[in-house]
Specification:
The protein has about 500 residues and is an alpha+beta fold. The chain is about 50% helix and about 10% strand. It has a domain of about 140 residues: Trna Endonuclease, Chain: A, domain 1 (3-Layer(aba) Sandwich). Strands 1-2-3-6-7 form a 5-stranded mixed β-sheet. A hairpin with a 5-residue loop joins strand 4 and strand 5. The relative contact order is 0.06. It comes from Pseudomonas syringae pv. cilantro. Pfam families: DUF4365 (PF14280). This is Tetratricopeptide repeat protein.
Amino acid sequence: MPVDGPLPGTGDQHDINADATRCLMARHPKNWRVQSLEGTDDYGYDFQVQTTPNQQATDIFRIQLKGTRSPNLTADGEYISVSLKATTVRYYARAVEPVLLVICDLSVNEDPVDCPLYYVWLRDELNRISVDDLSAERKSVTLRAPTKNVLTIATDLSEDIRHQNELSRMGHILSERAEQTHPGMQADDRLTLVQGVVKGLAARGSALMNALAGPTEDYWVNPARGTLAWNLTQAKADLQVTALDRAKIQLDEAEPKLEGSATLELAEYWRLRGNWQVQTGDNRAAVSSYQNAYEVTPLPKFRAAQVEAEIRIRFENDSDSLAELHDLLEGEDPTIIAIRSRLHAVQGHYELAVEQANLLAEPQRSFARAFAHWLSEEPANALTDCEAGLEACDASDDIRELLLLLRARAKFSLAVATATTPRRESIPPAGLPGVDLQKLEEAWVAINDAVLSIKASGWGSNIEQLVDIWGGHSVGPWQSRVDTCRPEGCSAEAPGLTPYP
């Protein structure tokens, strides 16, 4: 005789899950071998599917099945939505294998076998919702499947599965290549390297990816002609040789291509535009351009360039306001430290300038020290620093030209320091009495080295720093030092006497 009283209940959700499973088992493609994962430790997955076209086992993927009797459809009926736990969605983001979200609309028919199944690849939905941006407090996430994606016995997803598996394999291939190019590298370091490659590609524009995917005929990748990256590359090269008209043409051609560009491309455009404005003497416009670059991508080199342009403006017009610029120089990035040292030197805080310079690596350390010693009228110390910096840098280093310039000026100062006749507005044809001829000869050799360097870089405006040496010593050393803070003191690539990478 049966026992009276309450019995275990299944609940509505249990019935929905069971009906959705019946529907899937009745309507899935013929060449799928579907295995339930119920009762296993595969959290977030309901089924594992092995594809067997032509009686050959080819691929494996997983299914998350959701059934509903109250479908949530968009107003136009193009999508059906379900809510999933945010923790489960984050778990899916860690998956490598393909995962298919299947939604069964049980409201269509009482018999679940006759109800429609809609599907979407979870990777597509994770990209749509930007899963990496989900806050830790988020409890649920709404995912959707297009109602045009109806799963039937004739559905063929083999190409989708192959595509996703190939993408996963590319990561392994990249890791294998890294193992070949970096033998002995630890597995964790190799993973970091590969992740850096992927992040680097994502941060740059499509031109780099297209160039990498193109024919491997050159030893290095080059952007395709006419692309934004090509315009920026050409503009940078033109600025390095002071071809200002050509650089402007490239920048003007780049401007209408900025919409939809990568952030690094947009920031680089504004940096190059600022460099062009510096070289044409428009420091106020350059400040605005560098500020735009920093707002797009807050890199220290953009802030340093902005402050460098501000120094030139304020030194000439409002030197008392130079102290305000220190508030913009936050952090301990080497580029920030270098410009902070330069700012202290221009303010006359020479000990602080050298103190900051000592925090830098060579050859930046020696250049920053030399600049401070030059402004403090210590040519011997400036010369020592220049020699140390030149020994530390190679022929291709951007800072080398600046060190050669300061070395020439320091040597000339030392040569005329022993002159017994007071300096006048003009130098007599026979020269100043008491000049150290040996040091003067050494100065001319140094000047020639600087000239050759400037010639190689396209006769940039740094040539002014040589032709004014005689004049500087006829009107007085301080005025000459003031001139180094003016636009004429800028190198082809970097504004002022501070190089930026």
